[in-house]
Description:
Layout (H helix, E strand, L loop, with lengths): L25 H5 L1 E4 L1 H7 L7 E4 L20 E3 L6 E3 L2 E3 L17
Parallel strand pairs: 1-2
Antiparallel strand pairs: 3-4, 4-5
Amino acid sequence: MGDGNASVERAQPVTTGPFFGGLGTAPRALAIRFISSAARETIGPRTKAGRWEAVRATRGVRKQDMVRNGALPNVLVDPDTLEATLDGAPLRGEPAAEVPMNRLYLLS
């Protein structure tokens, strides 16, 4: 059981360390701002504030165009029993027998 927004009662806090792309001058060097073609022509090249790239040919992009995520499964959740199915097959997750370093051990 879990939720990316930690909106379920048993969600655990998530603590992450620094990432290589967030240190020093890396964010500016790695950043890309996607803007319209018209805006790109108006502002010209920007070098001090990172890369600015014009977005093109996006109106026809669909889910099926995604390289590794083209599936469109039928996901249903019964509001009464909370049973979830994926293309008719039930989705089940067994409870964990042991959860190391859970909320009991959270140090502040």
